[in-house]
Amino acid sequence: MHKTLLEAIGNTPLVRIPFDVPAQIYAKLEYANPGGSVKDRSAIYMIEDAEKTGQLKSGGTIIDASSGNQGIAVAMIGAAKGYRVIIVVSEKISQEKLETLRAYNAQVVICSPTDRIDDPEGYHTVALRLQKETPNSFMPNQYFNPLNAQAHYTLLGPEVWEQTEGTVTHFFAGAGTGGTVTGVGRYLKERNPNVKIFAVDSVNSYRATNGCPKPYCVEGMGIDFDSPVLDCAVLDEILTVSDDDAIAMLKVVAAKGFLVGPSSGAVAHAAYQYAKEHLSERDRVVLIFGDSGRAYLSKGFYAQGEVENMPRKKSSYSQVHP
Ligand SMILES: Cc1ncc(COP(=O)(O)O)c(C=O)c1O
């Protein structure tokens, strides 16, 4: 029983995915959070820190830039706590996420998609500008706020450790800001330095293409700038996944009952391929399902007409050492 909606953030289920590999692969169902994604954790942590430190006061406005889920988390928390919320998004956002922001009564500003975080017309710069212009406002700034990773170190890492009773051997998470994989990875390595930590990136991201990014459809995930939140020292490997492989895996896991978003498809693809090639029955994998497929149904990714047991294409999975 929770006295407030926000106390219900976290303690999400950890569920085995029935994959045909010897290793056990478990997914942390972050879509079970009240705002529907892993970002509830980082948003509540940054907002409550701002309240404690006086950066956010009663009657204030919270402004943030988001590819969707951070914005939804901020809008949900703002609604529950009674703050005005302005979210600046890129046109890449799904219609469902846009309508979710509006349902939480957030004001939405839409910018053209950009490859560069410092683009003067991009969503991050516009959010910074709005925050400077708006009195009594606070910007969590997930892209540059170290509390982003700290949130996952404090909230998500211990859950993964405790739910597996310390038996986790491999951890996989999609990297956008890198907060999730850095925070959880740091916590798990402190508990057991032998746990292997994998960040999952898009093959088309700024980092994966050495600064020449191409468009990709997976939302939320993809290392598109030199993120100060992402600590490569915590990572064992960065794995890259194509849109095609992420979407093909979406159908596979949906057919098993896990209706997840494209970044989760990418993470599941990377973990499955890695487990098939490298892991044995002694290994216990945990991966993050960051959000639900319900936020992407209008994108037409899920049509099951051609589903088979596993993706048909030869995998474009590749490994890059950080
Ligand atoms: C669904 C989903 N997965 C993964 C990520 C990446 O998380 P992080 O920014 O902590 O690296 C995000 C970020 O918004 C997301 O929305």
Look at the structure and give the CATH class of the largest domain: Alpha Beta
Strand percentage: 15-25%
Q: State the strand order across the main sheet.
A: 1-2-10-7-8-9-11
Shape-level CATH architecture of the largest domain: 3-Layer(aba) Sandwich
Alpha carbon gap, first and last residue: 43 Å
Radius of gyration: 19 Å
Order of helices and strands: EEHEHEHEHEHEHEEHHEE
Residues in helices, as a percent range: 25-40%
How many individual helices? 8
The secondary structure category is alpha/beta
Gross morphology is globular
Largest sheet, in brief, is:
7 strands, mixed
Number of strands: 11
Domain count = 2
- CATH overall fold name of the largest domain: Rossmann fold
Uncertain residue segments: 307-322
Instruction: State mean pLDDT (0 to 100 scale).
Output: 92
Bound molecules: pyridoxal-5'-phosphate
